[in-house]
Design a protein that fits this description.
The chain is α+β, with helices and mostly antiparallel strands. The protein contains eight helices and 17 strands. Helix 4 runs parallel beside helix 5. The longest helix has 20 residues. The chain starts with 10 loop residues before the first strand and ends in a 15-residue tail after the last strand.
Length: about 350
């Protein structure tokens, strides 16, 4: 490895669901501004930047071009490209517009092509370079897709950075797909890994590493309150049942015949217990929503769906995190960007997570 990749010796990873990027050219320009501002902020601090993006729009030619009004602006000969070609061109367009890189090999953009029309990708700033490792999981294995790229960040070994988009419906399938992600993250060689994603579910991680002892049991509060019972920032106000909750809650019938429900954290528990740590929870950062600000998205209220998860060896290297909440980010997408800063030199050696094998 060649030493610190950035002046500060730090790297920022931003996860960003760009909300159907490419479907609306005017809103795409706002997305460009969001990422350019993130790059400028990282550069001013002397940090390198990695962007895990979700919802790059690309469909099979047979499905028709739903974004016809913008297709010429985004790529030539759009009707003749495969879905993989369209998705790669989308990512290249985004990278060129924001001054970032996205090719892990010559003419091979770091994008994963899922079975749906939304695809994830990875981009990084000039301070970083690909280190030879690329992996993607898509097709029938996942509703959307997962990809990871090994980058030279100045650590002792390459560090894998990944982008993932979980399914928005199907509680059991979402949990099953969390297992698929774990298997890929911990597949040899075991790299320190950071996964930025839209997880489409409530995290199950506990706040920080400090546990309270109660009646002989170690107890720590869950970092995320149940948004389907109590809204953040509101004092003990119950939330009424809504049919949209079926995509996010497990339900039961109480003894008196009434409906009971709570956030389904099955996928979150699998990720947590399998060795992927919620960075915001580990840092005990002030809680901040990433969704719920968009018009018409008030049924489920403010929630934190955009999360960076890391293998346990990266926890010691975490420096800070924040949700970028501004007028620009609120207008650009129905998801707010979430940024985690880490110091590669502080990554612990020999402390891989529980899902090895």
């Amino acid at each position: 490895m060649r030493g610190p990749a950035a002046r500060s010796g730090r790297v920022q990873i931003m996860t960003y669901n760009a909300m159907s990027y490419g479907e609306d050219p005017e809103r795409a320009e706002l997305v460009h501004r969001v990422i350019r501002e993130a790059r400028a902020t990282a550069s001013a601090a002397g940090d390198a930047l990695v962007v895990a993006v979700q919802e790059l729009i690309a469909e099979d030619p047979a499905a028709g071009v739903r974004s016809a009004r913008g297709c010429r602006r985004w790529w030539p000969w759009s009707g003749s490209r495969s879905k993989a070609g369209r998705a790669g061109w989308r990512l290249q367009t985004l990278a060129e517009a924001t001054g970032l890189r996205c090719e892990y090999e010559r003419n091979r953009p770091a994008v994963a092509v899922g079975s749906q029309r939304y695809h994830p990708g990875l981009m990084w700033s000039d301070e970083l370079s690909p280190a030879g490792g690329f992996a993607a999981v898509s097709g029938r294995a996942l509703w959307h897709a997962y990809l990871q790229v090994d980058l030279d960040v100045g650590a002792v070994e390459p560090v894998a950075h990944a982008s993932y988009h979980a399914r928005s419906n199907g509680l059991r399938q979402r949990a099953d797909e969390a297992e698929v992600v774990l298997k890929q993250v911990f597949r040899p060689p075991h790299r320190p890994t950071l996964v930025g994603g839209d997880w489409n579910g409530v995290s199950a991680d506990r706040a920080g590493a400090h546990l309270r002892v109660w009646d002989g049991w170690a107890v720590a509060p869950e970092y995320d309150r149940d948004p389907y019972h109590f809204r953040h920032g509101e004092r003990c106000r119950s939330v009424d049942w809504h049919r949209e909750f079926v995509f996010q809650c497990r339900t039961w019938t109480n003894g008196d015949g009434t409906l009971g429900w709570e956030a389904d954290r099955s996928a979150g528990r699998i990720l947590r217990d399998g060795g992927l740590v919620d960075a915001a929870a580990a840092l005990e950062a002030p809680w901040a929503a990433t969704v719920g600000h968009w018009d018409g998205d008030d049924v489920c209220g403010p929630r934190r769906l955009d999360i960076v998860r890391t293998t346990t060896d990266v926890v010691s290297a975490l420096v800070s995190c924040e949700v970028i909440d501004s007028d620009l980010t609120r207008r650009a997408s129905d998801h707010l960007p979430f940024v985690v800063t880490y110091a590669p030199a502080a990554i612990a050696a020999g402390s891989r997570g529980a899902a090895d094998g």
